[in-house]
């Protein structure tokens, strides 16, 4: 029986490196928030969480206590419940946005890099034009057009990340397509689709998981910005950016908890994904790993 061994970077010893420790911290933070988001409806059915949209039975601006762990907002919402369900909304939008950008950018990058010629020039010009625009500004503009909602917000956010997947995959494709195994496949009669799907795909996507996690971290901030401007999800929907906007008016009066906890949750999610992405980057990039060890 053959035993598959883990890559060196993933074999944790008694004294793991700093990058391994940071990746584990990022993974733990990310998994914890994902766990809370996924099981939020179950926790609510057990009575552990209040209805995040119910403002009738909760006192207004109640400070954190044993009954309301994160206090209540000026609308009477339970801040703890809205923070947990806000993670659920963030995950839905962010995963959908990054998946959409990956599904569009990866095939375009492969085709552009492999085919070349005028098609490559046109796609490069188009992607460079999109990439020069600030991501948040582009998402705000698109959000005005498509409107609110989980799917609409994901579309508005995803367009800004397509050029990143395109450029990474295209550059890898350009370097790999000159390899001998690609030329051998072409000599044996493999068509463009067969070369792209069987020989190129798994050789050019090494950096895609890294880009996925880093884009997801950035997308959380963009979604928060859209929610803060009232362009993300429908009103009253638990969403960190929207809740921060509503909480700012009460902050000068000493109502700190309605701002602290949604902001802290957003920060933790971004930090967790960023640490995870940097750790994965070291794993898939041997040159970077050697430089760090030096």
Layout of helices and strands:
Elements: H1 18-38, H2 40-45, H3 79-115, H4 117-131, H5 135-146, H6 150-158, H7 162-176, H8 180-187, H9 192-204, H10 208-228, H11 240-248, H12 257-284, H13 286-293
Helix pairs in contact: 1-3, 1-12, 3-4, 3-6, 3-7, 3-10, 3-12, 4-7, 5-6, 8-9, 10-11, 10-12, 11-12, 12-13
What keyword list fits this structure?
elongated, MetI-like fold, disordered C terminus, 69% helix, single chain, 294 residues, mainly alpha, 13 helices
Domain count, please report it: 1
Largest sheet: none
* CATH architecture assignment name: Orthogonal Bundle
Number of strand elements? 0
CATH superfamily grouping: MetI-like
Shape: elongated
Structure description:
This protein has 294 residues and is an all-alpha fold. It has a single domain (33-40, 77-293), classed as MetI-like (MetI-like fold, Orthogonal Bundle). The chain is built from 13 helices and no strands. The chain has helices at residues 18-38, 40-45, 79-115, 117-131, 135-146, 150-158, 162-176, 180-187, 192-204, 208-228, 240-248, 257-284, 286-293. The radius of gyration is 23 Å and the shape is elongated. The model is unreliable at 290-294 (pLDDT under 50).
